[in-house]
């Protein structure tokens, strides 16, 4: 039997910063105390060691105090359950900051609700699949001009003009940056569903303009429209999938975004195959993309709106109705109760850009922006741009090279889907960047003068395939899933817009400077630079990224709540 005073004092010294364990300890001690008193009352002749503050009291007084203790414990437990909810904000936030998460990544385990069963994932799956059409379009439009570009330049009269060819590609990236910067304000202003529809509209208009044009200007304007939709789609898709998915499959559903992007890239590749044999086939390639865009716009009419966005707008009844559609009637009440326990009093305030960059949320925004920057600085797009040349040097045709890259990318994405909710986000991200660093070292070795020509070919091709596979396992799908999880609901959409904008800016400069750097530095030094960035990413993930596997958005938000 434990002394209440000693126990509480002992654990207070051990857990002065953790009220949960302190309360839990006192609770256990009180139960033991009550149980002992009950036994004493049932067996009055039995000799038991008495706790210190009952030593000089009579047996009758001890029995009366036992009854009071039972009553007091019941009231205390009720008070404990009410005031120590895992989602209730408390004035003391010392243990809720992201710094504590860095020192102890397992702190989120203290916020798990072990008493609730998992809702059915089948209800939310159709909504997620419709949303990932935007990711399919993202991949499709990134790859649609690769094969047909030569045919386009001939038909539109700018053959041999490398500047014009570069503009056909880069104009889309410029439009994507514009759409991405606006995505947070659009998603918060009109909701996630209408944001998807606004994403589909410029892609339909732009693709139609590109398909029907007879001059370079029309092509560039069309690509600018398409790019605006491309920039708007990925951040909204990441937000929507995160907010409508049950926690226990959120990682799996989040991997659908990367898989859809891979399918889009491969779809553009296969549809572009006849372009060399059939005159004007490039117009068909653009027209085809209007079909999934129209399906996205119409399909969103029948999909659920994000309950989180509805709740922030004060539309409580509608939010509960959407939870019923996504999780089932039995889980909707619980989901609403958890949502209501998070203090949303400041959600209606306008989130300013300065607050994201310099305010109390600046650190988590910095983590998100750095992840996307390191994703691009790892050299993934440079590898995609340079893959045909590397495979051609090994005697592999460019068409087959693109298929190999696409298949490896898709295979890695499918595997990551199965591992995301088993191993966790941080583990996949860590080992993904580590594998990419090893792959870049292999490619740098193949480019050195110490390896024979045949060995260099094996090193280059093998290193490139390993790099793409490692990227697809974690560095590709995880950032887009992890960041909406760790951003508080109030800033989620706008913070995603800022971080994705960093992605597009770095992407643009890597594409712009890669060939020049390759010419000036050579492949060995350039690959070594990319390997260095991958190693930096490994260290950054280990130090700053927290694990969110299996946690609800409210648990994560409370655990990462910054200090005022």
UniProtKB/TrEMBL annotation:
The keyword Transport applies. GO terms for cellular component: membrane. One of its GO terms (molecular function) is hexose transmembrane transporter activity. Keywords: Membrane, Transmembrane, Transmembrane helix, Transport. It is a multi-pass membrane protein. The keyword Transport applies. Its main location: membrane. Pfam families: Sugar_tr. It comes from the Eukaryota. Residues 127-549 form the Major facilitator superfamily (MFS) profile domain. Belongs to the major facilitator superfamily. Sugar transporter (TC 2.A.1.1) family. PANTHER family: FACILITATED GLUCOSE TRANSPORTER PROTEIN 1 (PTHR23503:SF8), SOLUTE CARRIER FAMILY 2 (PTHR23503). This is Major facilitator superfamily (MFS) profile domain-containing protein. It comes from Clitoria ternatea (Butterfly pea). The lineage of its organism: Eukaryota, Viridiplantae, Streptophyta, Embryophyta, Tracheophyta.
């Amino acid at each position: 039997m434990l002394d209440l005073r000693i126990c509480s004092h002992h654990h207070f010294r051990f857990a002065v910063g953790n009220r949960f364990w302190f309360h839990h300890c006192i609770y256990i001690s009180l139960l033991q105390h009550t149980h002992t008193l009950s036994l004493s009352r049932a067996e009055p002749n039995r000799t038991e060691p008495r706790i210190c503050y009952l030593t000089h009291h009579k047996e009758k007084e001890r029995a009366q105090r036992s009854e009071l203790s039972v009553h007091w414990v019941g009231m205390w437990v009720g008070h404990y359950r009410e005031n120590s909810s895992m989602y209730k904000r408390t004035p003391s936030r010392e243990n809720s900051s992201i710094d504590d998460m860095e020192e102890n990544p397992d702190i989120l385990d203290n916020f798990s609700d072990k008493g609730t069963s998992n809702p059915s994932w089948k209800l939310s799956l159709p909504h997620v699949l419709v949303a990932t059409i935007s990711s399919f379009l993202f991949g499709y439009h990134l790859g649609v001009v690769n094969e047909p570009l030569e045919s386009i330049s001939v038909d539109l009269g700018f053959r041999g003009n490398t500047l014009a060819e570069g503009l056909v590609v880069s104009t889309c990236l410029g439009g994507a940056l514009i759409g991405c910067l606006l995505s947070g304000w659009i998603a918060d202003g009109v909701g996630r569903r209408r944001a998807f529809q606004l994403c589909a509209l410029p892609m339909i208009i732009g693709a139609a303009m590109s398909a029907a044009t007879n001059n370079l200007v029309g092509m560039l304007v069309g690509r600018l429209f398409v790019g605006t939709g491309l920039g708007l789609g990925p951040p909204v898709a990441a937000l929507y999938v995160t907010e409508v998915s049950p926690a226990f499959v959120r990682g799996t559903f989040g991997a659908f975004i990367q898989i859809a992007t891979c399918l889009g890239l491969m779809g553009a590749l296969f549809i572009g195959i006849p372009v060399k044999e059939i005159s004007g086939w490039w117009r068909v390639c653009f027209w085809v993309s209007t079909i999934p865009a129209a399906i996205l716009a119409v399909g969103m009419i029948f999909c659920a709106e994000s309950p989180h966005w509805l709740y922030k707008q004060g539309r409580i009844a509608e939010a509960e109705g959407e939870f019923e559609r996504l999780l089932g009637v039995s889980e909707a009440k619980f989901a609403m109760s958890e949502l209501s326990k998070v203090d949303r009093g400041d959600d209606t305030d306008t989130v300013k850009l300065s607050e994201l960059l310099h305010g109390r949320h600046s650190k988590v925004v910095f983590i998100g922006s750095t992840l996307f920057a390191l994703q691009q600085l790892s050299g993934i797009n440079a590898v995609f741009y340079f893959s045909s040349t590397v495979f051609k040097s090994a005697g592999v045709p460019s068409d087959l090279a693109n298929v190999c890259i696409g298949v490896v990318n898709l295979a890695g994405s499918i595997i990551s889907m199965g591992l995301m909710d088993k191993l966790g986000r941080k583990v996949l991200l860590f080992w993904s960047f580590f594998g990419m660093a090893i792959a870049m070292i292999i490619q740098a070795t193949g480019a050195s003068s110490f390896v024979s020509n045949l060995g260099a070919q094996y090193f280059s091709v093998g290193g490139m395939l390993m790099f793409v596979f490692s990227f697809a396992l974690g560095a590709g799908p995880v950032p887009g899933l992890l960041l909406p999880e760790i951003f508080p609901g109030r800033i989620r959409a706008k913070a995603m817009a800022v971080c994705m904008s960093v992605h597009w800016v770095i992407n643009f400069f890597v594409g712009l400077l890669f060939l020049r750097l390759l010419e000036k530095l050579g492949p060995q030094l350039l690959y070594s630079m990319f390997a260095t960035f991958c190693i930096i990413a490994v260290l950054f993930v280990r130090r700053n990224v927290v694990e969110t596997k299996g946690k609800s958005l409210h648990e994560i938000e409370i655990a990462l709540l910054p200090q005022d």
